[in-house]
Amino acid sequence: MESSNRCSVIIIGAGISGISAAKVLAKNGVEDILILEASDSIGGRIKKQNFGNVTVELGAGWIAGVGGKQSNPVWELAVQSGLRTCFSDYSDARYNIYDRSGEIFPSGLAGDTYTKAVESAMQKLRTDRDILLSADVSDIPELSTIPETPIELAIDFILHDFEMAEVEPISTYVDFGEREFLVADERGYEYLLYKMAEEFLFTSEGKILDNRLKLNTVVRELQHSRDGVTVITEDGYVYEANYVILSVSIGVLQSHLISFNPNLPRWKMEAIEKCDVMVYTKIFLKFPKKFWPCGPGKEFFIYAHERRGYYTFWQHMENAYPGSNILVVTLTNGESKRVESQSDHETMREAMEVLKNMFGPDIPEASDILVPRWWNNRFQRGSYSNYPIYADSTMFENIKAPVGRIFFTGEHTSERFSGYVHGGYLAGIETGEGLLEEMKSEKDRETNSKSILEPLLALTLSQTEAVGGLQTCDIHRHLFHGNTKREAIL
């Protein structure tokens, strides 16, 4: 194994949490940091790719929570950086629901079904909560509606996989506003991270050239003690630090890619294992021409199938990139994992069959397809965290609580904004500030210990001088430089 010099802080993971934590440390004078990133670029689950001559976002794609009384910090970064975005209005999607014969469900039926689905979803969430809080379930009402028809299944999918995750109003929309903006910039969403990084890392022409960032560096083991943390990588390198900030996804923590010696305490592992991991897959399809409706209220459309979540939610990219002729269909969880395990050719065949059901058999064939694989990516193992309904403040506290000299951060450590980019950003800042406080406390403890030891040492020296007749300098040499005669022999 090859080793390197010890530094103050090692940050594992260069996603938005890791970068924002590093920025906080550097801004406060902690410059001997090292960032270890497993992939070949910073960003984590914020990742762009060129497809069909435009830039598409494989992971995080929206800035959610805009237009409220408080300003979303990620939106502020986007404005400062001049990032190009497009407003997304999902409200009309419910009126663009196609059945398997290509007919659009009447707006009245779609509206009524949506309203009933919302009421049923809220009732289910409250029922689940009541079951967890009460030992007597006899008084808890049964669900009034269980989705069965294709349109009910489609709307149920939209609600639970896109809009609803909590009984109470979602904190992001309450705090920052209900508007959402799609990132549509050739520089990508990740440009915000590079702008942050250039404030404390050496960059040139948009590339980070600072040797404190090491890409393609896969961490496999953390050996931790009272004195520090030893980080061991897959290729045999050993790094040492006073502290570590672990900024990897909840999926990676659950996958045990990184081992701990000694093991993490039970309370920590139980909290990590209880958190759900969502898989969210945006499949991009390129066509020689567009054949779908465009214009106001037509950006999103829904396919009603008897199998829940089967190529249900669609979006065209004409608002973001006019003339791109790209469609996006979003799958989640079970369907995502199924598609990840099959060939792109088979996925294209399935998607084309759905599109032909909606728009007729004469539509052109897709010329290209892009299928992200977040679940099978061992450096991510999913898209974002989703806390179960029974999660309480103790579970959140345990997930983000440090273990000795290892600090944990990421969107999964944000109690109010888990699952969002701004959640990851704010979590990194909070973790960086928490570590600064700990470093200051440690320095104060060392100073106090020194102030106590110095008088004792002086007293010892004076007593020894009186008894042995040695000069103070001789005693100092014996105490701190060892036996001079032995040193001379060696």
Automatic annotation (TrEMBL):
Known pathway: Amine and polyamine degradation; spermine degradation
Keywords: FAD, Flavoprotein, Oxidoreductase
Domain of life of the organism encoding this protein: Eukaryota
GO biological process assignments: polyamine catabolic process
Keyword Flavoprotein belongs to the record: yes
InterPro entries named among the record's database cross-references: Amino_oxidase (IPR002937), FAD/NAD-bd_sf (IPR036188), Flavin_amine_oxidase (IPR001613), Flavin_monoamine_oxidase (IPR050281)
Cofactor dependency: FAD
GO MF terms, alphabetically ordered: flavin adenine dinucleotide binding; polyamine oxidase activity
Domain Amine oxidase: 16-431
Entries under Gene3D superfamilies matching the protein: 3.90.660.10, FAD/NAD(P)-binding domain (3.50.50.60)
Binding-site residues, FAD: S17, E37, A38, V219
Family: Belongs to the flavin monoamine oxidase family.
Descriptive protein name: Amine oxidase domain-containing protein
